[in-house]
Each structure stands twice: as C-alpha cells, then as structure tokens.
Design a protein that fits this description.
- By secondary structure, the protein is α/β, with parallel strands linked by helices.
- Helix content is 37%, strand content 20%.
- It is built from 17 helices and 24 strands.
- Helix 14 links the parallel strand 22 and strand 23.
- Helix 4 crosses helix 8, helix 10 packs across helix 15 and helix 11 packs antiparallel against helix 13.
- It is globular.
- It starts with 35 loop residues before the first strand and ends in an 11-residue tail after the last helix.
Length: 532
C-alpha cells in the first residue's frame, strides 16, 4: 500500500523546533474552471468526518468513518495511527466523489482532537499507537508534579494545568517506562502534525494544537526547551508550528490519486476541534461562550488577553484559531457518560429512559437531594462525588432530577467564576448531544440566568476548518467577514425568571454541600465558600 503509513521523503524530515512558515507561502491563485469547493475534516476520538462546502457555506457532501478506541490496560486509551490515516483517506475519497457534481475541491483543512500524540521514526511511520488525550497512564506522574509544586510553573509557561493524557505527561511517562521506544523515536507528533506529514510531506501543526501538548511556550509562541526537557525529549523531535489558516502545502501526488482529489489541492493549517467548532458557530468576540455537551462537557470562553492572571485558577489558556483571540477553557466533567450510565441503571428498559430524562429535566426534584459529579466538582479540587442526602423514599425521577441539576450547578459555578474574573457571559452557545433535548437548554438557561443559543444539527468543527481553508486559500476574503456570511440561524432560549429564582436559592445549598464534602475528604475548597 503505497499511500499507507509510509516513509515520507523530502520535507517529511523537517523537525522544525519553533514557529515556522511554509516555505512557499503559497495561496490558491490559479484559475479554476469549475466551482471551487472547500473541505473541512473533523478528526475526533470516535470518527473521522469530511464535509464539503461551497463558497456560500452550503454543505454539498459528507462522509464518515469510525475509528476504534483501544484500551489494552486499565486507564489506557489508544488509537491505531494507521487506521486513523486510512479513515482519513476513505472520507476524502468519498466526499470528493459525492461532491463532484457541485464543483471541484480546491483546499482542505483539519479540525483535530488535541493533546494526543504518536511517536514516529525517521521515515514518518508510527512506532506505537496514538496515545489519546483520554489516556490516564501518566496520572501518577502528574500527581507527583503537583506535590512538588511544578504544576504552577507548567501552567505559567504553557497556559495549561498538567493532565495525565496530554503530551507533556505522556512523553515523560514514555521516556521513563519505554526507553527503547524513546531511543528510536525521531519525532512525536500531534494528530494534525501526523496527518499533515502524510498528506503534504512535512509535519506541521498550529498554535491551538501545539499548546495542548503542554510543551509550547505561549509567551514566545515556540516549543519550550524547559518543558521538553521535563518530558525527556529535544525540541528537534517536534514538528513545525504555524498560525491556523496558513497555507501549509499541496497534496503529495500519490495521496491525491488515492483520495480521488485534484493534484493541486491546497492544504491549510487547521486547529483544535473545539476552537474550530467555535469558529464554525460564529463565536468570535469576548463575552460569547461555548458549552460542548457531549460525552465530556467543556466550557470555552473567548478573551482578547493572553494573560493568565485574568482567568479563574481552574481554567486553561489556549490560542484560538482566530488571530489575536485566545480561549479560556475548562473540562467540567464527563457528564454525558454519567447521564447515560445512570439512565441505564435506573431505567433498564431502553424504551423508558429518554422519556424519563426529559421528565427529570422539567422537574424541580427534591429540595434536599444533591448530585455531586462523580469525579468531584472541578470548582472544589475534585473532591469525591455522588448523591448527598439520599433517602429510601426518593424516587427514580427525583434522583434523575438531582443529577441533571447537579450538572447545571457546575455550569453555573464556572460561569460565576468567569464573571468574577471580568469575563461575563453575554450568551452561551450550546452544542453536542444534549442539544437534541428541548429541555436541557431551557434548564441551563434558567440555572445560569444566561440566554442559550442552541447549536445542533451542523458539523461545527468541520465547518470551522472549512472557513480556515477558504480564507487561507484566498477564496473567502477576510475571515471575520466570512464567518458572518456563513453564520447559521440558531434558536435562542431565554431564562425563565421564576425557575431562575428557584434554582438560584438551591445553588447556594449545592455549593455548601460541595464545600462540606471537600473539607471532609481533603479536597481543595473553592476560593469563595458559599453560605450554607
């Protein structure tokens, strides 16, 4: 298979230690005889999806391939890098074939899972599986750094709290525990860098992806010698870094043939999938927040300042894919997985469970039953979670209502922390699986007092990647103007004043419950304890 995960000649050997620019710096200037189309690709932890758009932002074709997540040991979460590459080739081929009647694909960009990493040899072939951001093998190492106080300095340099599944910790674990693998690794690449190496012949990623490896010095926009040393690697073992939306190269001829694409397709640097999703929704300005509500619930706010001091202590600072804009984000918890689990436990009959969830979302529940996230509240140092105040007479409906409200209180707490840091939410854009219920957005609007923009039914990360591709190729003009033209109408859910008052009173009780549990178990209470 000549276009499998293969040796990459020429530019593939560039290691690029710091910020770099594609040597040709080319844009798409040649005349195109047919309608040019833009291709955005979402490379997630469960699937690869390609979406083709015309210049007006209308979807012309989609293609999707699942990619298995492997768990060879407890706490490990890997993917086959070769399978990821073949899934990309497959969706490119299918999307190109299905969109042929509408025009010709001229340019593409990736919106990729961030933080995941794969070691490759000098020819660009993977030496081990891709270790995903979900992996937790390095969690004890992160705990060791925290005990030593290193976590504070890591955040000061990178903008991120150390995390067991992200590049810094994973590489430090590999160099400690797999020295033979480390000795043979020529490079360690993130998902975008790995796939671009095989698409265009050299390994390159953007600022938003590089930063989530926790090896990037945010202040100088280059790999950090200090953090690389902590990981046990050299700067030369990382790929080049360029701004999102920068032309990176053209498809290798063999790849273009295998994917059924024109030989002159331009590839533009994309970005982190959450950042691309925000761009696809049209989130451009400070005061606009995105809540991703899938398996994991992630809150992302925009800011114009790169200073860490502006952020609540629990949030991470990243580069947005929009120039001179930054993101402040926080993983609130795996709430989607928790809801599905409890529905299965409480309602084994699958015909009942989502009807029961909708009823729970509309219920005020019991006044004395609280649900604390199973991983612990991120606002209170991850103290243990669970149900607090559970009695024998509580019904399944009351248990589910408490669970849903506990999730809502965590969102409210994070928004309050942002407001205290002078980053108030003017509105909350909500995407992901929870938007398919008409009641989740209404509950969150009431519990947070914030209007909720319901963003479902579109391929947001791929849409954002296509916007970067089109503007990087010079086909869409100015990025912000293109985002406005492509913006889709969304339903707005306003807070219900009566429900907001009721949940506001309960929120103080929830905070007090969390603080008590944190105090009893040695967790770290939040900076502003609530009144009981």
């Amino acid at each position: 298979d000549r276009v499998g995960v293969r040796p990459v000649a020429g530019r593939g050997s560039r290691a690029g230690g710091g910020a770099a620019t594609f040597p040709a710096g080319e844009r798409l200037t040649q005349a195109v005889r047919v309608e040019p189309l833009l291709l955005g690709v979402e490379v997630g932890t469960s699937a690869v999806k390609a979406v083709v758009y015309d210049l007006e932002g209308v979807e012309r074709s989609t293609a999707r391939r699942p990619v298995a997540l492997m768990t060879p040991q407890p706490g490990w979460a890997e993917q086959d890098a070769a399978a990821l590459w073949h899934a990309l080739l497959a969706v490119l081929h299918e999307a190109a074939a299905e969109s042929a009647a509408h025009g010709q694909i001229a340019v593409l960009a990736l919106a990729a899972q961030a933080g995941s990493i794969v070691p490759v040899d000098r020819q660009g072939a993977p030496l081990a599986p891709l270790i995903t951001w979900l992996d937790q093998r390095a969690a004890p190492l992160v705990a060791e750094w925290c005990r030593q106080g290193r976590d504070v300095h890591i955040r000061e340099v990178s903008g991120w709290h150390p995390h067991g599944g992200l590049g810094l910790a994973i590489l430090a674990w590999l160099t400690r525990n797999s020295p033979q693998l480390a000795a043979h690794a020529a490079q360690y690449l993130d998902v975008q860098g790995f796939l671009l190496q095989h698409l265009i012949g050299w390994s390159v990623t953007d600022y938003s992806e590089a930063a989530e490896l926790l090896l990037f010095d945010r202040s100088v926009r280059a790999w950090s010698p200090e953090l690389c040393a902590l990981a046990g690697i050299g700067i030369g073992q990382l790929g080049a870094v360029i701004p999102a939306g920068t032309p990176a190269g053209r498809l290798l001829p063999a790849v273009a043939t295998a994917a059924g694409l024109p030989p002159d397709v331009l590839v533009v640097a994309g970005g982190q999938d959450q950042c691309c999703a925000a761009l696809g929704m049209g989130i451009l300005a400070p005061g606009e927040l995105m809540l991703a509500s899938g398996t994991a619930w992630v809150l992302t706010a925009l800011t114009s300042s790169p200073e860490l001091e502006q952020l609540p202590p629990g949030m991470d600072l990243n580069f947005h894919v929009v120039p001179r804009v930054y993101t402040a984000s926080q993983l609130l918890g795996g709430f989607g997985a928790v809801v599905d689990w409890w529905l299965t436990v409480l309602y084994p009959d699958s015909a009942e469970r989502y009807t029961a969830l909708d009823a729970a979302l509309q219920s005020s529940g019991s006044n004395d039953l609280y649900f604390l996230p199973l991983g612990g509240s991120v606002q209170a140092g991850h103290a243990p979670g669970g149900f607090l105040g559970l009695r024998l007479n509580h019904t399944r409906a009351e248990i589910m209502a408490a669970l849903c409200q506990g999730i809502g209180f965590e969102v409210r707490w994070a928004l309050d922390a942002l407001a205290a840091a002078h980053l108030p939410a003017a509105r909350l854009w909500m995407s992901g699986g929870a938007t398919h219920s008409p009641h989740w957005p209404a509950l969150l609007a009431a519990m947070t007092g914030t209007p909720v923009q319901v963003a479902h039914g579109a391929n947001w990360p791929a849409r954002g990647a296509a916007l970067l591709a089109g503007t990087g190729a010079g086909l869409l003009g100015d990025l912000q103007a293109a985002v406005v033209r492509w913006r889709l109408p969304l339903a707005t859910v306003e807070p219900d004043a009566h429900a907001a008052a009721r949940y506001g009173a309960r929120f103080a009780g929830y905070q007090a419950a969390v603080q008590r549990v944190a105090g009893l178990t040695g967790g770290e209470p939040a900076d502003t304890p609530a009144e009981a």
